[in-house]
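> run fold TetR/AcrR family transcriptional regulator
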Amino acid sequence: MTTSSSPTRGRPARLSQARTIQTALDLLDESGLDALTMRRLADALGVQAGALYRYFATKQDLLTAMAERMVGGVADAAGPTGGGDWSERVARLARALRTALLAHRDGARVFAGTHSTGPNTLGFADSLVGVLREAGFGDGEAARALYSVTNFTVGHTLEEQAALRPGDGGPTDAGALHEAVVAGQYPHLAAALPALTSTDFTAHFEFGLRLLLDGLRSVRR
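> ok
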């Protein structure tokens, strides 16, 4: 005797936009961006590839949705309005964005070039621009500072994840750089080799972020 639930037994979970995005992020973490195809995603979801186009007309649309999901909660790093020094609040937002991108394999590659108008992405942008406007920056200055901070953070994280990508080990690249500098006539690079070959990417990031904030302080003055 069959039960009333038996007709649905063994069927895949119903396809939805949220489930599709989460499965895509899981595949990204598992195999990286280059291996993420619409066909492989459809297979993981147990559907025909054409079913995905109900939600995403192109793979780029999918990547934009994935980027939007990645940065959920990043805007909260700014803290409440009027909550502390503006430069530290901007720094917290930049750090939170980097952390969100590092949380997923090839996260920065996914995020770069997408232009989401979703609440997570726009919330981050609004928070950063808002912090600067409250601090006395003009509207144009705040907007350009948003681009500068975001582009620096994404670009840095792109290089960081590329250096640490499985199969492209950063230490190998560092060793090659060391050998090339030592074998050649590059006295200034030789003197700076410990920093140049360091894999302390947080230290690299914080140095660049400090330069950006110092520049913004000059603009504000």
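Residues 1-9 have pLDDT under 50 and may be disordered.
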